[in-house]
Specification:
The protein is of the alpha/beta class. It has two domains: 3-100 and 245-274, Leucine Dehydrogenase, chain A, domain 1 (Rossmann fold); 103-237, Rossmann fold (3-Layer(aba) Sandwich). Helix content is 41%, strand content 20%. It has eleven helices and twelve strands. A six-stranded mixed beta sheet has the order 2-1-3-5-6-4, sandwiched between helices. It has a six-stranded parallel beta sheet with strand order 9-8-7-10-11-12, sandwiched between helices. The two termini are 36 Å apart.
Length: 275
């Protein structure tokens, strides 16, 4: 019996996830297909009902549905409970189970890059869904504290409230205190969709041993990562996180060990083709 998986999101035509997931299915010898399901917000409820009826065996969820899909789940597991957002859906006995593999994806990528275990303070720029997962992933990887900087301070405060106040604080991007936090940070992580030109980050003003992580993986090279490397700092883009969040979802759906190298290769080819 062929398995079916969807990526539910809006504006997802360029997503590299089908290339990565279909390569993983093929390498694992699983008869199945992962496809895009372009889904505006008013169609999400219908898509989730179809999933519950068994029209697909699982799904990934991306912008703008991560929170609304979590609210529609029958059960949330693990990080999804903490974050109130899902990026992966599984169907079990007709129940919709919500999972969030983004923090795991970041943690696995940092280990693979030789950056984790971390120590010292971190700064996360942005306060959306990926930023929340990043805060969780950084704390679990060893960061002592995380400052969340966002252009809307209220959004940063809402994110910080999900965590222990002794470890996570919130500032607005134009707060002068942020410059000091950036200068002291062991890790600076960009969780916004914008780069160097629009963010208050100059790699030359960071610690010489600082690592800059940018969750973006396109266009390549990611400008902030290139700027970090040009200044002698370490730079890590979002491709590793994308790979590992996707492969944890694969394992959740298929109960099969993820063929990481086949997926990594397919992802690299897809990203190079669209660079
Ligand atoms: P999101 O929920 O829409 O959050 C985006 C955040 O960036 C918000 O805080 C937003 O603030 C802020 N922002 C947007 N434009 C900005 C600007 N010009 N200046 C300053 N801040 C700005 O999106 P998300 O899901 O968190 O995704 C964020 C990034 O992470 C995207 O580039 C996405 O592709 C990437 N991502 C990567 C992975 C991976 O596996 N590598 C996984 C998830 C996401 P406002 O709300 O004020 O606009």
């Amino acid at each position: 019996m062929s398995l079916h998986f969807w990526l539910l999101g809006e504006g997802i035509a360029e997503s590299p996830s089908p290339a990565m997931q279909n390569a993983a299915l093929a390498a694992a010898g699983i008869d199945g297909e992962y496809r895009l399901y372009e889904c505006p917000p008013e169609e999400l409820a219908g898509a989730l009902a179809a999933l519950r009826r068994g029209e697909a065996d699982g799904a990934n969820v991306t912008i703008p549905h991560k929170r609304s899909a979590a609210s529609a789940c029958d059960r949330l597991e693990g990080d999804a409970l903490r974050l109130g957002a899902v990026n992966t859906l599984a169907v079990e006995a007709g129940l919709l189970v919500g999972v969030n593999t983004d923090a795991h994806g970041l943690e696995a990528a940092l280990v693979e890059e030789g950056v984790a275990p971390l120590s010292g303070p971190a700064v996360v720029l942005g306060a959306g869904g990926a930023a929340a997962a990043a805060v969780l992933g950084l704390l679990r990887s060893g960061s002592s504290t995380v400052t969340v900087g966002a252009r809307r301070r209220q959004q940063a405060m809402d994110l910080a409230r999900r965590f222990d106040a002794t470890h996570v604080s919130a500032l607005s991007l134009d707060d002068p205190v942020l410059a000091g936090r950036l200068a002291a940070a062991a890790v600076v992580l960009n969780a916004t969709p914008v780069g160097c030109a629009e963010l208050p980050v100059d790699p030359d003003r960071l610690r010489p041993d600082a690592t800059i992580v940018d969750l973006r993986y396109r266009p390549r090279p990611v400008d902030l990562v290139a700027a970090a490397r040009a200044s002698g700092r370490r730079g890590v883009d979002g491709a590793g996180m994308l790979l590992h969040q996707g492969m944890q979802a694969f394992e959740r759906w298929t109960r099969h060990a993820a063929p990481i190298e086949a997926a990594r290769h397919a992802l690299r080819v897809a990203l190079d083709a669209s660079a």
